[in-house]
Amino acid sequence: MSSQKIVRAAAVQIAPVFDSPTGTVDKVCQAIADAARQGAQLVVFPETFVPYYPYFSFVLPPVQSGSEHLKLYEHAPTVPGPMTEAVAAQARALSVVVVLGVNERDHGSLYNTQLIFDENGQLALKRRKITPTFHERMIWGQGDASGLKVVETGIGRIGALACWEHYNPLARYALMAQHEEIHCSQFPGSLVGPIFADQIEVTIRHHALESGCFVVNATGWLSDEQIAAVTPDPGLQKALRGGCCTAIVSPEGQHLAEPLRSGEGIVIADLDMTLITKRKRMMDSVGHYARPELLSLRIDDRAATPMFADTSAPKAGLPAFATTPFIPDSEEISHALR
C-alpha cells in the first residue's frame, strides 16, 4: 500500500505533431512541466502518442497506406533511445512519474508500447499491447505477458493497459492480482465518434470498481486541420472525431474531476489512497471475494523471442539416447504387449 495518503494525478489530452520526428516529444516534456507546476506527481499520456497514433490505418485501405506506414516507421522511437532519455530527464528533474504511449520500433517491426518512468527517471516498465485491435493489426506486432506487471513507485503500485486490452478480463485480472493501486489507461481519442467516449467511460469506471483502484485515463485529440491531413474525405473525417474521455476515477467509480471530451487540456485530481481500503473492505476481488480454488489465472509471463538456446538438446557428437534415455510409460508397454 502506498505510504502517501494523497497523490495528485494528471491525465493529458493534447494533439500530437504529425510532421516532426521530435515535435510530439517536445510537447510531452512541456506538458509534464505544466502538470508539475500544478503539483502533479503522476502524468499520463494517450495511447501511442509518440510520434502519433496511426489514425490513417482506420480510414485508408491497406493498398493506400504504405507511404503513411513508412513515415510512422521513420519517426517511431527505439526504446531506449533519445526519446526515452528526454522523457526520463524531465521525470527526474521534476520528480514526476510518467506513463507514456509510444510506437516502438524494434528493427523491422512496430509495437504499441507503454512506458512507465518512475520519479527518479528510471524506466520502470516497458510493455507491449498484447493484441492490436482490428485495423491496428496491419501496423503493430503482438506483445506478450512479460509486460503484464505492476511496478512499485514512490506514489504507489502502478499498472497500465492500452485501449481494448481492457476488454480482456484476464489481462486486467493479472494486474488486479498484483494489487495495483493506480491503473493508467490509454486510448487514441479522435476516433469512431461519441459512442467510443461513452464506452471508454463505462470501461474505466468498471475497472476502478472491480479492482478497487484509481484509474487515470488519457485520450488523444486531433484538430480539424490534422483530421483533414489524414483524409480529405468529409465522410471519413467523421470517423476521426469524438471518442475523447480523459478522466480520473476513484475506486468507488466516481469521477474526481470533470472529464475532458474535446480540445486540449489536462485533467488533475487528488487521489485519496485511503479509498482503496474503503472499497476493498467491501469487495476485494483478488482477496476475500475471490475463490481461487474454483477460479484462478495461469499466466505465461516469459518474454516471446524468435530465438533461444535449447539447453535440453543433445550434446554434439553424442546420439540422442546418450543424454535422453527412452523410458516407456505403462501405456506404451501395454500397447506393445497386445
Provide an overview of this structure:
- The protein is built from 11 helices and 11 strands.
- The protein has helices at residues 23-37, 56-59, 66-75, 82-94, 169-176, 194-211, 224-230, 234-237, 274-282, 320-323, 330-336; strands at residues 6-13, 42-44, 97-106, 109-117, 123-128, 151-153, 156-162, 182-187, 214-219, 247-249, 265-272.
- It has a 6-stranded mixed sheet.
Mean pLDDT: 93
Strand % is 15-25%
Largest sheet: 6 strands, mixed
Evaluate the radius of gyration: 23 Å
Number of helices: 11
Quick structural gist:
With 338 residues, the chain is an alpha/beta fold. 29% of the residues lie in helices and 20% in strands.
Give structural attributes:
about 350 residues, alpha/beta, 6-stranded mixed β-sheet, 11 helices, globular
Q: How is this fold's topology laid out?
A:
Layout: E1 6-13, H1 23-37, E2 42-44, H2 56-59, H3 66-75, H4 82-94, E3 97-106, E4 109-117, E5 123-128, E6 151-153, E7 156-162, H5 169-176, E8 182-187, H6 194-211, E9 214-219, H7 224-230, H8 234-237, E10 247-249, E11 265-272, H9 274-282, H10 320-323, H11 330-336
Parallel strand pairs: 1-2, 2-3, 7-8, 8-9
Antiparallel strand pairs: 1-11, 3-4, 4-5, 6-7, 9-10
